[in-house]
Amino acid sequence: MQETASCLKLGRPVPDFELAVYEPLKQDFGTFRLWEQINQNRWTILFFYPADFTFVCATEFAALAEQHDAFQELGCDIVTVSTDTQFSHLAWQRAEGELAGVKYAMAADPTHKVSRLFGVYDDDSGLALRGTFIISPAGVLVNSEVNFYNLGRNIDELMRKLKANLYLSKNTAEVCPAKWRKAGDRTLTPSAKLVGRVHQAAQGA
Fold first, then answer.
1. Cα(130)–Cα(61) distance, integer angstroms
2. Cβ(114)–Cβ(120) under 8 Å?
């Protein structure tokens, strides 16, 4: 499976896959399919996490839920993924107060196939690391981040990355500097004239 995982590269298409999910809004089970996201021209954030009924994970889920509507308005669907079953997802979402506001699909990967595909499966623990992946409506992997078990992710930064990718998908000649936060902030346009003069360009000179 290591060879399969190594095929996933930034800027390249992601192979089609599907996952069983628990859908809190419907209070029912369903299926997530990447090709459906592409057909519907939707962005996708895959949010891998170690396990249901754990601690940092619950805080991440609450933070995601707080901004879920904003992600949706930008044309992006969030799908959380762990190696638990969809039945465990249902039980956790119903039991844990931090997950009370969760509306996004909770995907099950008990066979580890998708976790391995994205290179986040940890053979030593049998769990997925905290991997976050942004996939464009064309099915292209445009962003990846992997944290170890003990560090929760910043959802504000995830939102910034999504907004940047949305902007760059429409303004392909530009690049977003480190402090870019939203459309309207200063960008850079690489060229021979910019070489050695990034400071001046960043200051608007």
1. 12
2. no
Q: Which residues are registered as beta bridge partners of 140?
A: 13
Is 202 exposed, middle or buried, given 0-12, 13-18 or 19+ CB atoms closer than 10 A? middle
**Antiparallel, parallel or unpaired: β 105-108 and 43-48:** unpaired
Q: Are 2 and 115 in contact (CB under 8 A)?
A: no
Q: Which amino acid is at 65?
A: A
**Beta partners for 106?**
22, 80
Tens of pLDDT, residue by residue over 32-88, are: 999 999 999 999 999 999 999 999 999 999 999 999 999 999 999 999 999 999 999
> What superfamily in CATH does domain 2-170 come from?
Glutaredoxin (3.40.30.10)
Does pTM top 0.90 for this prediction?
Answer: yes
Residue 99 CA, distance from chain mean position? 18
Name the residue with tokens 């504000």: 156
Rounded Cα gap, residues 125 and 54, in angstroms:
14
Cα-atom radius of gyration of the chain, to the nearest Å?
A: 18
Hey, CA dihedral for 70, 73, 76, 79, is it positive or negative? positive
Q: Which residues are catalytic?
A: 57
